[in-house]
Write a structure and sequence with these properties.
mainly alpha; Multidrug-efflux Transporter Regulator, Chain: A, Domain 2; two-stranded antiparallel ribbon; elongated
Length: 121
């Protein structure tokens, strides 16, 4: 992204400059795409994050380059999200492994606490 490195939030004007879209288009897309909900600051101005800008670019590609309708783009994004969620979700066995690690860390911490208590007393 050519936007300022290290900056966490971007104004609607900055996003428009980056994407080549008009402000009214972004505001309209917020009503049509549930995943596009930029936070608002205290003044009520939209504060876009990198993930919002990435989604805007994906929507733009689907609508303008690939000629999807808004409904078709919504479905495409939903299917991509489902694919991503199924890849990211830990399996039952992953959860067991995590629980075992947490239990081992807890035991180590309790042992360390006991040693510290013995030193202090």
């Amino acid at each position: 992204m050519s936007m300022a490195a290290g900056k966490r939030y971007f104004s609607i004007r900055e996003v428009c400059d980056e994407t080549g879209l008009e402000q009214h288009v972004l505001r309209y897309w917020e009503t049509e795409f549930p995943g596009l909900r930029p936070k608002k600051n205290r003044a009520g101005n939209r504060a876009y994050r990198d993930k919002d800008i990435s989604l805007i670019k994906t929507i733009k590609q689907l609508l303008y380059d690939e000629q999807y309708t808004i409904q078709g783009a919504r479905k495409k994004l939903a299917s991509k999200r489902e694919e991503h969620d199924s890849e990211v979700q830990p399996t039952f066995f992953d959860n067991i492994d995590i629980q075992e690690k947490i239990s081992a860390i807890r035991q180590d911490l309790l042992k360390l606490k006991k040693e510290m208590d013995d030193i202090i007393v």
